[in-house]
Amino acid sequence: MLRTVANSADPPSRAAVAAATGLTRATISTLVDDLIAGALLTEVGPAPRSGAGRPAAGLRLSPDGPAGLGLEINVDYRAACVVDLTGSVRHRLVEKGDQSLPAVAGLAHQALLRASSDGLTVAGAALAVPGLVGAGGIIRVAPNLGWQDVTVGDLVPGLPLTVDNEANLAALGELAAGDPPASFVYVSGEIGIGAGIVLGGELYRGVRGWSGEIGHIPIDPGGPPCRCGARGCLEQYAGQEAIARAAGDLTVAGTALGTALATVVNLLDIDTVVLGGIYAPLVPQLHDAIQAEISRRVLTADWSPVRLRAATLGADAAVRGAAGAVLRGVLDDPAAWLSRIQAV
């Protein structure tokens, strides 16, 4: 029911929610009262209308309800943001330098203090990392951080914490923003390169949750060594450091990206590629070289062109996607949230 309200373009009435869900008006009324008491919903004044009868009040998600804490650690920065239930960013913090877990914990503490000053209750936290995350949130390998088999532990005391790949969370952030297609590949460009794969509106994780490591697609098996231990990976041609060395000439990066993306498109049969991270503002310069390789290498390009677009959320996609992942859990299981606050 909460999803029905969240997905409505205009605040629906209780009667409209009952009609959409198939539940009785009495049941909906009881549920709505509980959700209002739990600060998940709020009522808004009815819009003026013509005709007989009194207009009904509308329902919308409460901006004063549970919030999500998104955290991100990357090679040259760490970030935190607090997002309320309506999707509004209430606080955003970014720091350079120390990329240790204690430093991320300190940034999380600052964000929680700011959320508390707004009267917000943070429901949980999610951490985005540039690496492979295994069961239990263990970071199996993050080559560009030099991490292997790192356990995050109690990073944010008192809050449930999930850990996920930053490209996955960025893709989820993009999925929740604007009006994306149901299926797309989100390419996250930083020093490393990752991809979040969305198929039919759902994140595709693979058998072990490790899909999307596009940065290690080989462009030239005899090319420069990569931090992963192989040679000639995409990151060595189109990562942040390679782009900096190119001093404005992005042809090599665009060609390499196009080559790798053509492989992804041939494999998955998707028609939209979203470029995020450092790539988002560079789409005008990268577009032609990427498109040339896709047109040359994708078997179906003549009948089904692949669309390239910049990420809606830009560099904030991963940290906002992390906060959004927390809120997605609340929307999917509001009863669990209500039980938590009643137990306090």
Overview of the molecule:
With 344 residues, this protein is an alpha/beta fold. It has helices spanning 2-6, 14-21, 25-37, 101-117, 166-176, 235-238, 240-246, 251-268, 283-297, 317-332, 334-343; strands at 41-44, 58-61, 66-73, 77-83, 89-96, 121-129, 132-133, 138-142, 147-151, 161-165, 184-189, 193-199, 202-204, 272-277, 307-310. The strands form four sheets. It has a five-stranded mixed sheet with strand order 5-4-3-6-10. A five-stranded mixed sheet has the order 13-12-11-14-15, with helices on both faces. The protein is globular. Helix 2 (14-21) packs across helix 3 and helix 8 crosses helix 9 (283-297). It is built from eleven helices and 15 strands.
Task: List the topology elements.
Blueprint: H1 2-6, H2 14-21, H3 25-37, E1 41-44, E2 58-61, E3 66-73, E4 77-83, E5 89-96, H4 101-117, E6 121-129, E7 132-133, E8 138-142, E9 147-151, E10 161-165, H5 166-176, E11 184-189, E12 193-199, E13 202-204, H6 235-238, H7 240-246, H8 251-268, E14 272-277, H9 283-297, E15 307-310, H10 317-332, H11 334-343
Parallel strand pairs: 3-6, 6-10, 11-14, 14-15
Antiparallel strand pairs: 1-2, 3-4, 4-5, 7-8, 8-9, 11-12, 12-13
